[in-house]
Design brief:
about 375 residues, alpha+beta, eleven-stranded mixed sheet, 5 helices, globular
Length: about 375
């Protein structure tokens, strides 16, 4: 395992469980291949808890890159693969008021049911934000529309990639169990895994086009000056890897997400750290997409046969952690300059702050 975390109390606890996940992925790959194989997990600075209890129970957390070698294709399905990312559009005209912003969002919400798309900008940590950039060395001054969402059209439907009972691959799921604990890897292999990977990998471009559609629906095509940035942080970069809350595209800059109402930071990465990796024939730059969720008290995670216990509270597999008082977003108090947590992140994944995005109006789930 490559530990690029901040080593806070939450991450120290999670790392113990990721060690077992890495071990099981390697053992499963070896079993299927009939020859020695290995797995490796890159734990990122924003490593934290997902809201999906089933994902945790399957051994996977947000803020990590999971990769394995194998001669037989397989997919660990509790990674709950989808494509999620952000897009940034420069506007030719500013949005005059919160009332106008709310009207534009409401108009888009009413249009989307007439399309094949699913509106999910107030689900989980997704959002639409209007803001301003001034004085960045990589992004022109101006007003911007920022979107963050996933391809919900390929989630729990029959054609989706979540391990949902009755869907196209559910009956092909097998279980590789740990002999010494209640841990396991649920997986599909062979042709179904090949098809799964192909579908997952096309979703990167699908979600980009999807965001372009939503941007035009929100503000109108004539108001969009240019798409400045589109980067995914959730998906399958290769046929044998999954990124969960981890960007992998080697671009000139990326946007580090923080908290509603707080500055977001443009980062110019350096290709010198342990996060710049060779993965088979691919070179990937792994970068965090945000600050991540942590436990408000030192956590203890216990794996039961059909449940998860966090600090003594038992959760069923279809429960969600989001909204629980014991789970909070890593944040910062400072609003001027570079917050310490951002500086700490850039020590692990080298780069420089080259601008800020000032949030003005936002549409998000505030629960």
């Amino acid at each position: 395992m490559v530990n690029l975390t901040l080593n806070d109390e939450t991450q120290i606890e999670i790392l113990k469980h990721l060690e077992k996940t890495e071990y099981l992925l390697g053992k499963l790959a070896t079993k299927l291949s009939g020859s020695e194989q290995h797995a490796e997990i890159y734990a990122m600075p924003d490593l934290g808890f997902p809201s999906n209890v089933q994902r945790i129970h399957g051994g996977f957390f947000t803020g990590a890159y999971y990769t394995w070698t194998t001669t037989v294709p397989f997919i660990p399905v509790d990674t709950t693969v989808n494509s999620c990312g952000i897009s940034l559009f420069r506007l030719s005209q500013p949005i005059a008021s919160k009332e106008e912003f709310d009207t534009l969002v409401e108009k888009a919400i009413n249009i989307v049911p007439q399309t094949t798309y699913v509106w999910n900008f107030a689900k989980g940590n997704h959002f639409i934000t209007y803001g301003e950039v001034r004085g960045s060395s990589v992004v022109p001054d101006g007003y911007y529309l920022l979107q963050h969402s996933s391809a919900s059209e390929f989630k729990k439907q029959y054609n989706g990639l979540y391990p949902t009972q009755g869907n196209w691959f559910y009956d092909s799921i097998e279980i590789f169990r740990d002999e010494d604990s209640s841990r396991y890897i649920r997986y599909i292999s062979g042709l179904k895994a090949e098809l799964f990977a192909k579908r997952a990998m096309i979703l990167e471009e699908y979600n980009r086009v999807r965001h372009q559609f939503f941007a035009e629906t929100l503000v109108g095509g004539s108001r969009i000056d240019k798409e400045i940035l589109n980067v995914q942080h959730y998906g399958m970069p290769t046929e044998s890897s999954v990124a969960i809350g981890c960007q992998w595209n080697a671009q000139d800059f990326y946007l580090l997400l923080t908290d509603p109402g707080k500055p977001l930071f443009f980062i110019q990465p350096q290709f010198t750290g342990k996060n710049f990796i060779q993965n088979g024939k691919d070179k990937l730059l792994l970068t965090p997409h945000g600050l991540g969720m942590k436990a408000s008290a030192p956590p203890k995670v216990e794996y039961l046969s059909n449940a998860l216990k966090v600090n003594g509270i038992e959760y069923l597999l279809d429960d969600a952690l989001k909204g629980r008082h014991e789970m909070v977003l890593r944040s910062f108090d400072e609003i001027d300059g570079t917050p310490k947590i951002v500086s700490d992140i850039l020590e692990k994944c080298p780069g420089n702050v080259v601008g800020t995005f000032k949030q003005i109006y936002s549409y998000h789930n505030d629960k």
